[in-house]
Amino acid sequence: MSLPLVCHAQAVAPNQPEALAKLFVDAVNSKSAASRLALLHPKSRACINAQTQPYYDWIFSRQLKHVIPAAKYKVTAEPLAGKQLLPSDGKSDYPLRPSHQLQIDFDTGPYSATSIILLIVRDGARWYEVLPCPRPDAVAAIGVIEAKRAEQKRKVESLVAGLVDPLRAEITALARQGRRIDAIKRYQDASGQDLTTAKDVVDLLVPR
Questions:
Q1: 195 occurs within a structural domain
Q2: Which of 21, 59, 74, 181 reaches 20 to 30 Å from 67, CA-CA?
Q3: Per the domain annotation, does 1 fall within a domain?
Q4: Does 3 have pLDDT greater than 90?
Q5: Above pLDDT 70, what percent of the chain?
Q6: Can you tell me whether residue 180 is helix, strand or coil?
């Protein structure tokens, strides 16, 4: 059974799993990789070395891009007993089994929300996140993902640089009016690009 949904405007005892959520939110909002790293169980931290560092950098960099409303996020802690752990691709191994799933939900805009899930375990008086120890093929897979992301970034930058009026002005106006979805659809229809690329173009042209 899930523990109650809580809002972190309230105080939470250090021995409750929600206390780890607050530390996570503080680390994300401060953009502190060191604070983020400190949330890992020592057995997970022991897996970090020169070869595996890109795997953890990839996870942390994606999370640290968020801004989580400090008084408005919600937390759910749910036992993992009997449940299969992710990832289940055979490319990573957990140094110890997490006991709970911690889900942090927050709004990222008027019509969008984000959920971040941490697998956690209590050790002594506090809770820690448990990340798997990646095998070499898992690290290699991250390299492939990052290469594709870099290629997409270059593509989007080129598309924005080549975007001219009147389409550029029309898309810019729609996005600034709060009609970002209409702006994305308008660019997609005009350019023939896929939805992801259209969204990236609008986001680069008119940052949120």
A1: yes
A2: 181
A3: no
A4: no
A5: 89
A6: helix
What is the residue range of 185's domain? 140-205
Q: Is the dihedral of CA 153, 159, 165, 168 positive or negative?
A: negative
| Same-domain check for residues 114 and 18 | yes
Sheet of 100-109: strands edge to edge?
6-7, 74-79, 100-109, 112-123, 126-129
> What pTM did the predictor assign?
0.69
For residues 13 and 110, state if they share a domain: yes
- The contacts of residue 23 (CB under 8 Å, 6+ apart) are 35, 38, 39
Say if residue 22 is in the same domain as residue 114.
Answer: yes
Alpha helices, DSSP H only, in 46-97?
53-64
- Cα dihedral value 85, 93, 115, 84, nearest 10: 0
* Nearest Cα to Cα of residue 17 among 94, 129, 115: 129
Contacts of 38 (CB under 8 A, 6+ apart): 23, 27
